[in-house]
Design goal:
heterodimer, A: 166 residues, alpha+beta, 5 strands, B: 21 helices
């Protein structure tokens, strides 16, 4: 009955807490793109792909005492509560393959910061929309002030995520 | 000078465009005309009988507002044209009852379908755009992702966009619910862009935006999130779920036009063939099916014998949380299959219509009121702090289970 909450709680547990709402958004986006069954729809916004539904779910999970929220240095931090642990104790949110893939994805992107995750998820989103390389680069340079080097770096980071190779 | 085509509109009085121009050509394609047969508010007419207005009139209204915004922003002429074309086409990917069909019979969401329809070589949209010198991909980018300048996309999809500006007024007029009527003229005068092409509202427009946000909140509560409408939507979802199940067991034969929807081979051409009437016909015909669940669900739809609902605030949801299995057991014990006679709707699911939240935690949700984007509207306008986004679950179940459900959730 609470599948979408089970999924985000499982993610927070695997991440051992998530620092930053932008990071939360981008990790779910990348997980969804790698075939893990998150159901939230993402749309383009000023900071790349963003899901209003996910933003509300995070707030709801806090309200239902599944996640705790604290704020330090301007960033929100999310941890799993006891009630959240209780919700996911049967580990039914994802099938075993998805759970394994989620673990693999997390191990590869866990240490990236919000800005890097914004960059790679933006590149991924625009590529999925069929943007040609040149247009994508010009678009990112103009709307996000990225340099050529920064975009190339983002593309390297994206290539390093092995789950997208499959 | 080119002749004008003038359309009388219930919201904007008159909408006009060149008789021999691109807008006229786009409107007169069959894929755009199909929007005349798709209600803007889906099943809301179960609650508000006059909510029969269509995605066609809303699309025209959005186009008209985009045209006016283009003039107010003194946009470059070409940007202004692209913006109004994008506004006209922004809903072209909607199916009938899209909030119900997406997820049951359609895998793609309407944003993905919008892109496919605009760029498809089989349909006439891309042909017309190219004939008039526009790149279909660029138009779908303005709607879906972004383009330069930045505010073009934000004016189609943000807290202050022409889509919301139009549907709020239109839905208010056609439902007869006066709470959605706000001062659009003032907002249009005071909505500006800074040197980085980002949107903000000048001081003289703050009160009008405050009123607009209160209107949105009221419309969400009274129209978009109405329990009766949600109950009918859930019923239709269950009917489609059952027909899908029966089809996969060779026990249901859909009409020729609906068949591709059941076969997971939906081409964009198949997608654009159906309208509200095809779905309503499917329900009508399903009433006579041998399958008891399907015929009962369909009869309930046709006779407006809906599942009952209870609303549970999330902050008080621990009983629902702890007793979820008990609730389902009680329904099963009364011989109702919970796959078809129980639903839970989370307020997070109504995202398209979600009201504004004060002190947004995500920058994407903010409405800025200074050119340097340092101030957000709820920091300045006290009354907005009182608007809290409804955060709740609604559950739906057969009437026979009402007492027991109430005991378990309270």
């Amino acid at each position: 009955m609470f599948e979408s909450y089970e999924k985000i709680c499982t993610l927070v547990k695997k991440m051992e807490g998530i620092r930053g709402r932008k990071k939360f958004q981008k990790i779910v986006y990348l997980a969804k793109e790698s075939g893990i069954s998150f159901n939230e729809d993402f749309e383009w916004n000023n900071f790349g792909p963003f899901s209003r539904e996910l933003a509300s779910e995070i707030d709801s999970a806090k309200e239902m005492n599944l996640l705790s929220e604290s704020k330090s240095q301007g960033e929100y931090e999310y941890e799993l509560t006891e009630k959240g642990e209780e919700l996911i104790q049967r580990d039914e949110a994802f099938n075993p393959t998805q759970l394994e893939n989620l673990g693999r994805l997390i191990s590869e992107i866990k240490d990236l910061d919000s800005q890097e995750l914004e960059k790679i998820s933006s590149i991924k989103y625009l590529k999925n929309q069929g943007y040609k390389e040149n247009y994508m680069k010009n678009f990112l340079k103009s709307t996000k002030d990225y340099t050529e080097d920064q975009i190339n770096e983002g593309e390297y980071l994206l290539r390093d995520i092995s789950i997208f190779d499959q | 000078m080119n002749k004008e085509r003038i359309i009388r509109d219930s919201v904007h009085s008159f909408i006009s465009f060149e008789k021999n121009g691109l807008i006229n050509d786009l409107i007169d394609t069959d894929v755009f005309q199909r929007l005349k047969n798709i209600r803007q508010l889906g099943l809301s007419y179960f609650t508000y009988p006059n909510a029969q207005h269509t995605r066609f009139s809303h699309s025209l209204g959005s186009f008209w507002l985009a045209k006016r915004v283009g003039k107010k922003f003194s946009m470059d002429e070409e940007d202004s044209k692209k913006f109004s074309i994008a506004a006209l086409l922004h809903d072209i990917g909607h199916s009938p009852f899209s909030h119900v069909l997406e997820g049951e019979l359609i895998d793609d969401n309407h944003t993905e379908l919008t892109k496919k329809i605009i760029e498809s070589e089989e349909l006439k949209i891309s042909e017309n755009l190219e004939k008039h010198g526009y790149d279909p991909e660029e138009i779908s980018r303005i709607i879906i992702s972004g383009t330069m300048p930045k505010y073009l996309h934000n004016l189609i999809s943000s807290q202050l966009d022409v889509d919301r500006f139009d549907y709020l007024l239109r839905d208010s007029i056609f439902t007869g619910n006066i709470h959605g009527r706000y001062d659009i003229e003032r907002i249009l005068h005071k909505l500006k862009s800074n040197e980085n092409n980002e949107l903000f509202v000048e001081k003289g427009g703050w009160s009008a935006v405050e009123h607009y946000l209160v209107c949105r909140y009221q419309m969400y509560k009274q129209v978009y999130n109405h329990s009766t409408t949600l109950s009918v939507e859930e019923l239709l979802k269950k009917i489609l779920k059952r027909t899908n199940y029966l089809y996969s067991n060779a026990s249901f034969v859909p009409s020729k036009i609906m068949k591709p929807y059941f076969e997971n081979e939906l081409s964009i051409d198949d997608f654009t063939k159906i309208s509200d009437a095809n779905i309503l016909n499917l329900v009508k015909e399903s009433k006579n099916e041998d399958d008891e669940i399907l015929s009962d669900l369909s009869a309930r739809f046709l006779e407006r014998n809906l599942l009952k609902s209870e609303t549970i605030k999330k902050k008080n949801s621990s009983n629902l949380f702890d007793n979820k299995e008990e609730i389902l057991k009680g329904i099963e014990e009364r011989d109702f299959d919970t796959d078809y006679y129980f639903s839970k709707v989370d307020s997070t699911e109504k995202e398209a219509y979600k009201p504004y939240s004060p002190n947004p935690k995500d920058e994407e949700e903010a409405i800025y009121i200074s050119p340097d984007l340092s101030k957000e509207i709820s920091e300045e306008i006290e009354s907005l702090k009182e608007i809290s986004t409804p955060s709740e679950f609604k559950i739906f179940f057969p009437e026979q289970c009402r007492e027991e459900v109430r005991e378990l959730i309270n």
